[in-house]
Write a structure and sequence with these properties.
alpha/beta; Methyltransferase, Cobalt-precorrin-4 Transmethylase, Domain 2; five-stranded parallel beta sheet; elongated
Length: about 270
């Protein structure tokens, strides 16, 4: 059964191409590329002569039947401009169609700007949410951010340079001034990782240039305020019965419960 290979390609540094990706790109009968010109540069650098066909946002549906027909004759590789196809890039429709037709679909993993940004961010990575690009319309963008405001997962976004400052301002207004890592031109010559707060990032990137991945800390869990409950009242009563002075008893419980000495002293006076 022919295979559709989902091949990850370098996001900047060509040395990040994997040996497996090179082999697959050489052996398939056709490469479906988001931008044939950019992919041709990569293939020329790797001395690979496999035929190319375009598969991008505006022809991804009209090209489905053609690429699927080519799959009938042999293996096909799907590549995007950089990173993994189908992840904020064209590919999902072709992958779903190939699966529906019974073709084998196999990942050839490799470079990922999302994972690279998370790895160097210094922010929690156990749980994260990738949102790609925020909506252009201010009201839609605000709506998305408001839904994310209470999310504890680390948030990961992509953004173009001309929209970076608008995005950072919207985040500050909706999410608050949180810790962030703004990663620019990852693996490229002018790679930069800014770590700080959203407001400091806004100050830093006065004239943004390059491609950005933004990693924002999720909301921090707010600890429940301590409550003067029956258990604490019982501890106060026990200390009073043992002859402890009010000042000493309230200070001791304030340190262990988080309650204020004033509130504890008020409860002390009411004890019988």
């Amino acid at each position: 059964m022919p295979t559709l290979y989902i091949v990850a390609t370098p996001i900047g540094n060509l040395e990040d191409i994997t040996l497996r990706a090179m082999r697959v790109l050489k052996e398939v009968s056709l490469i479906a590329a988001e931008d044939t010109r950019r992919t041709l540069k990569l293939l020329n650098a790797l001395q690979i002569k496999t035929p190319l066909t375009s598969y991008y946002e505006h022809n991804k549906l009209s090209k489905l039947d053609y690429i699927l027909s080519k799959l009938e004759d042999g293996d096909v590789a799907l590549v995007s401009d950089a990173g993994t196809p189908g992840i904020a890039d064209p590919g999902q429709e072709l992958i779903a169609a190939a699966i529906a037709r019974g073709f084998r679909v196999e990942a050839t993993p490799g470079p990922s700007s999302v994972i690279a940004a998370l790895a160097v961010s210094g922010l929690p990575t156990a749980e994260f949410r990738f949102l790609a690009f925020l909506p252009r319309q201010a009201s839609e963008r605000r709506g998305v951010l408001e839904r994310l405001a209470a999310d504890k997962a680390t948030l990961v976004f992509l953004e173009a340079p001309h929209r970076l400052r608008v995005m950072l301002k919207a985040m500050i207004e909706t999410l608050g001034d949180r810790p962030v890592a703004v990663c620019r031109e990852l693996t490229k010559l002018h790679e930069e990782v800014f770590r700080g707060t959203l407001s400091k990032a806004l100050e830093h990137f006065g004239e943004p240039r390059g491609e950005f991945v933004i990693v924002v800390e999720g909301t921090r869990a707010v600890e429940a305020a301590p409550v003067l409950d029956d258990k604490i009242i019982g501890q106060l009563l026990k200390l009073k019965n043992e002859g402890a002075p009010a000042k000493e008893a309230t200070a001791r419980l304030a340190a262990t419960t988080g309650l204020s000495r004033r509130e504890l002293y008020g409860a002390w006076l009411k004890l019988k």
